[in-house]
Please model this.
Amino acid sequence: MILVIAEHLEGKLNRASWEAVAAAQQTGEPVKIAALGAAVAGVAAELAAADAAEVIVVEHPALAAYTADGYVQALAALVTAEAPAAVFLPHTYQTRDFAPALAARLGRALLTDCLGVKADGGGRLFVRPMFQGKLHADVRPLGPSPHLVTFQIGAYRADAAARGAAPAPVRTIAGAVDPAAVRQKAEAPFQEAKQAVDLSQAERIVSIGRGIKGQEHIQVAEKLAAALGAELAASRPICDAGWLPMERQIGSSGQTVAPKLYVALGISGAIQHLVGMKGSQVIVAINKDPDAPIFEVADFGIVGDLFEVVPALVAALNG
Amino acid sequence: MKIAVCVKQVVSREWQLRVDESNTWIRDQDASYELNEPDAYALEEALRLKERHGGEVVVCSAGPARVSQVVREALARGADRALLVEDDRLVGADAFATASALAAALKDERCDLVLTGLQSDDSGFAQTGVVLAETLGLPHATIIMEVQVADGALRVKRELEGGWFQWIAMPMPAVLTIQSGINQLRYATLKGIMAAKKKDVKKVAAPDLAPQHEIVRLYFPEKAKATRLIDGAPADAAKELVRLLRDEARVIS
Model:
């Protein structure tokens, strides 16, 4: 049996939970899905639509708001009681906050950010990206089961999760949480001041990465954006450096976009960036490194120096 | 306040990756190395906290002998002293092995705060800081964008997905994994580089390392999508790209 840990924020199920369910179902093993919280009947009912052996609701007032300590305590008890063959989770920020501590407390291997599963004799190998996605590794978890595995967002399709003919049974158990042992106190989640730039509405986007090398070169990309009638955006390092405002950042910590045309200039294509733009209709990559992962998702590519190619593009567009 | 910063040495972004003969690791004898970027932000945050609250910044790293390079760099940027767990078995180690090595160095230091980057640019586990917290028996929070310290208590701003944030309060000592972009980095000055030569680097023996996983094969991924690569001189390639975007993809007019 594979135990999937679903994720929700204030009663709203994270779609990535379905992706983890799809990954679990594709192993061919029975699947159970757990949801933690104080009042998660709605989430449980939604999850019960899955083709699963059972949905387990782990309830405790101390689980009303997510904390790492609360989740680790409750899940360590649940995993011990259920003794699954493996535990699958979506590789969200929340999973990254608690899963390593859970694995350490259970003394089990944890493989993170996996892209797929391969058969390995009687066991399994997990494919995961290394070196910013430039290489992939087939990895064998060692030590006693259950191994914990997190799956990269988008590695499996949420709509590939099979629905059951009838709703799966829902079982509610009391979470094994000692509130006194929860050291983190979480305040309510909030958004920063409303984003002034809504890049999700842009039809065309020109996006820059480390290859732009300096703030003084951003005008090179601005000219291309003007010639294309495009919005200017960037990968995280550019915004970290303060060269463009954070509100123009594309990726897992910024905006998710799917324009008609996405032009990536000097962006290597770390997964944190790709998740924010790979749904674009047409992707153009200009990068000097032919092995850059951005070419994995690009429809058209030019391997070359953006400082030569981009002015030529502006001339060709305006000519 | 005593702050430890755990830093990792990773192959530099500029180095063209090559897989070794065993097909399980890179040809790292040929590689060039640098400080893992998220750890650089963690170091900067530690230095800023020391400037605000006083105390000491101890840099800690675990790896083969070459990692003394990033330890020296951290000392040059302003860390006060260093702990180095030197062991060749830590090349390509998993997060549990690295965390147990770091814990061996830190367990008797009684730090108020342990900072590290949220993940490494090489293996990208995003686990080491959290496993270290569990190993040391300390509370933790991850992907942190602001650190407030007042009256021995900690309040940190944790980044959630999609532009959401959350403040978390917890007691010290604690472990935090720092998000890139939390601050603006400083670089080593010549004076800092000279001063670093006199700073103390203490070597600590690695504990028993029980690996949690093994890499069976390391390889360049097969392309999932057929990219049309446009060759030629920049002017010709640019013209051809514009033609394709206009006439075939029809995404510009």
About this structure: Chain A has two domains: 2-181, 199-318. The first strand of chain A starts at residue 2 and ends at 5. Chain A touches chain B through 94 residues (CB under 8 Å).
